[in-house]
Design a protein that fits this description.
By secondary structure, this protein is an alpha/beta fold. It has a single domain, classed as P-loop containing nucleotide triphosphate hydrolases (Rossmann fold), CATH 3.40.50.300. The protein contains twelve helices and ten strands. Helix 5 packs parallel to helix 8 (197-209) and helix 9 runs parallel beside helix 10 (253-259). It is globular and about 50 Å long. It starts with a helix and ends with a helix. The protein binds adenosine-5'-triphosphate (ATP) and magnesium ion (MG).
Length: 293
């Protein structure tokens, strides 16, 4: 990427009106601008027990229906965990609970050994270093690739700081690294709306990566992708593993096979089986829930 192109991107960002920026930031934060006012010290993450995420006995009911039923799960730092399970198993609800979108009726959810996620808002949880990718790409279509990434970097800093945002060499360096990681370094000046579905998904992952999350939650990231895009996404996730912890929910078994270490099978809101893919696929209870319904 040339410095000229970087400058072009920065100039276009600077040209955004403040009101427009506020609106974009509010959209990105789900309209909870107030939650961004408070900075949280992500350095405080305590990994001494070898777990970055810990759920114990978590339950949630919707109108008497137990969507999550005494779910316990833990994730190691740098791990890439795949979660599979039939429709309605509770996979998305589990992510909603981790990210503070849904509050469980019972149980504990800890980030590291000491951060009780149930005491934090959705915005605070994002600032603590948990990034979430929803199934549908939610990039700003009218902005360029570069502008989307820079906006994500600013948004993470909170509204007040984002309006005073000044580019720095460190930020430029981070944006360059992320552009290469998501293989969009040749498309930085393209409008996001003109990207392929797969590229939009990568851009959205890039928008999470510029915020340096320690844990990334990805819900059906390859849905709607071509086979080639799916393969490239598998390579991307394998590169991210180790630097970040990843929880990947997917129905695409070829994709799971390409990235899997430990696979957790969710069913009826609880863990049905867990282990290497070959082991869980041979488990009669897993075969039953996939084929017996
Ligand atoms: N906000 C809600 N209100 C009522 N019921 C809900 C709510 N959210 C989820 N559910 C129900 O909880 C169950 C689990 O849903 P969830 O979306 O977590 O499943 P999933 O494993 O992600 O399924 P899929 O593979 O289809 O995405 C479903 O029966 C769903 O209808
Ligand atoms: Mg789901």
């Amino acid at each position: 990427m040339t410095p000229e192109l970087m400058d072009q991107g920065a100039q276009r960002i600077a040209a955004l009106q403040e009101a427009q920026m506020r609106q974009a930031l509010q959209t990105a934060s789900g309209g909870r601008e107030a939650g961004f006012g408070r900075r949280i010290d992500a350095e405080a993450l305590d990994l001494t027990h070898g777990r970055i995420l810990y759920l114990e006995d978590v339950s949630v009911s919707f109108d008497g229906f137990k969507a999550i039923n005494r779910l316990s799960l833990d994730i190691a730092p740098g791990e890439l965990r795949c979660i599979i399970g039939p429709n309605g198993a509770g996979k998305t609800t589990m992510m909603d609970i981790i990210t503070g979108k849904t509050r469980p009726d019972a149980g504990s959810v800890f980030f590291g050994s000491t951060i009780d996620l149930l005491r934090h808002t959705e915005a605070e949880i994002a600032q603590l270093g948990i990034g979430r990718k929803f199934q549908k790409p939610t990039v700003f279509e009218q902005l360029t690739v570069f502008e989307n990434l820079e906006l994500a970097l600013k948004t993470h800093k909170g509204v007040a700081q984002s309006l005073r945002y000044r580019r720095s060499a460190a930020h430029d360096q981070r944006l360059c690294e992320v552009l290469e990681t998501i293989a969009l370094q040749d498309s930085l000046a393209r409008q996001a709306g003109k990207l392929s579905h797969g590229q939009k998904q990568w851009l959205e992952i890039g928008m999470l990566l510029v915020q340096d999350p320690q844990l990334l939650l990805l819900d059906e990231p390859v849905a709607g992708m071509t086979d080639q895009e799916t393969e490239r996404t598998a390579e991307l996730f394998l590169r991210l593993k180790g630097q970040h912890s990843l929880i990947v929910v997917e129905h695409d078994m070829a994709f799971i096979k390409a990235i899997a270490e430990t696979v957790t099978v969710l069913c009826d809101g609880a863990v049905l089986a867990q282990g290497p893919l070959s082991k869980v696929q041979a488990d009669p209870r897993v075969i039953e829930v996939y084929l017996g319904r």
